[in-house]
C-alpha cells in the first residue's frame, strides 16, 4: 500500500507507516486477521508501549472500530457492535455445536448454540477474555463487553457463570442461557 499524503524519504524510513497512521485503508479481512493474531498484537502493544506517539492512530482506530464508531476497513458505511453481534449469532445458529470465534481488538469472543437436537429451545454459551490475555483493562473495555453480550443475545440481568467479573478482570467470562424466543438464521446470513 502507498500513502499519497506522506510521500518522500521519511515514509520509506517509517516501518509500518500505513498500519500505524492509516489503518482504515487495510482490507477488512486482513485487519481482522491482524486482530486475531495474538502474538502479532502483543508485539504491536509492546511497540506502542515503547513509542506511544507512533502507534496512537492505530490503537485509536481499533478502539473506535470496536465501539462501532469507525467502519471496518472494507465495509464502507460500517456496522456497529449490535449488527456484528447479530451476524455472529446467526452464524452460530447456522453452525450449531460449533464455536464461532472473533476478536475486536480488546476482547476475544466465543459463541456457541446447542446442537440440532435442541432446535426447539437453543442453549447458548458466550465467553469473553481480554485480548491479549493478561493485559490491563480500561473502562471502555467493560462498556464494550456489555454491548457485545447484549448484541449476541445474553438476556439482561443474566448472571455470569462463576461471577468472575467481580473477582478477576483477566478471567474468561462466561454466560449460558436458554433462548425462550429462538430466532431462525436467515438464508442470506
- Low-pLDDT regions: 1-14, 74-78, 183-189
Order of helices and strands: HHHHHHEEEHHE
The strands making up the biggest β-sheet line up spatially as: 1-2-3-4
Biggest sheet features: 4 strands, antiparallel
List the helices and strands and how they pair.
Elements: H1 9-13, H2 17-21, H3 28-36, H4 38-50, H5 52-66, H6 81-94, E1 100-103, E2 107-113, E3 123-130, H7 139-151, H8 164-167, E4 173-178
Antiparallel strand pairs: 1-2, 2-3, 3-4
Could you give a short description of this structure?
This protein is 41% helix and 13% strand. The protein is α+β, with helices and mostly antiparallel strands.
Could you describe the 3D structure shown?
The chain is α+β, with helices and mostly antiparallel strands. It has helices spanning 9-13, 17-21, 28-36, 38-50, 52-66, 81-94, 139-151, 164-167, and strands at 100-103, 107-113, 123-130, 173-178. The chain is globular. It starts with 8 loop residues before the first helix and ends in an 11-residue tail after the last strand. The chain is 41% helix and 13% strand.
Task: Write a concise keyword list for the protein shown above.
alpha+beta, 8 helices, four-stranded antiparallel β-sheet, 41% helix, disordered N terminus, 189 residues
Amino acid at each position: 500500500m502507498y500513502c499519497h499524503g506522506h510521500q518522500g524519504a521519511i515514509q520509506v524510513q517509517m516501518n509500518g507507516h500505513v498500519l500505524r497512521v492509516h489503518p482504515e485503508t487495510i482490507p477488512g479481512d486482513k485487519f481482522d486477521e491482524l486482530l486475531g493474531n495474538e502474538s502479532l498484537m502483543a508485539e504491536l502493544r509492546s511497540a506502542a508501549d515503547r513509542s506511544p506517539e507512533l502507534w496512537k492512530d492505530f490503537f485509536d482506530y481499533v478502539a473506535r472500530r470496536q465501539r462501532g464508531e469507525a467502519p471496518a476497513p472494507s465495509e464502507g458505511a460500517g456496522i456497529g457492535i449490535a449488527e456484528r453481534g447479530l451476524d455472529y449469532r446467526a452464524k452460530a445458529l447456522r453452525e450449531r455445536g460449533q464455536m464461532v470465534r472473533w476478536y475486536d481488538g480488546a476482547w476475544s469472543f466465543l459463541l456457541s448454540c446447542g446442537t440440532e437436537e435442541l432446535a426447539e429451545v437453543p442453549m447458548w454459551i458466550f465467553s469473553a477474555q481480554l485480548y491479549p490475555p493478561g493485559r490491563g483493562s480500561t473502562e471502555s473495555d467493560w462498556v464494550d463487553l456489555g454491548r457485545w453480550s447484549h448484541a449476541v443475545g445474553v438476556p439482561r440481568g443474566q448472571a455470569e457463570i462463576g461471577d468472575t467479573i467481580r473477582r478477576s478482570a483477566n478471567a474468561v467470562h462466561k454466560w449460558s442461557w436458554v433462548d425462550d424466543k429462538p430466532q431462525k438464521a436467515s438464508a442470506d446470513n
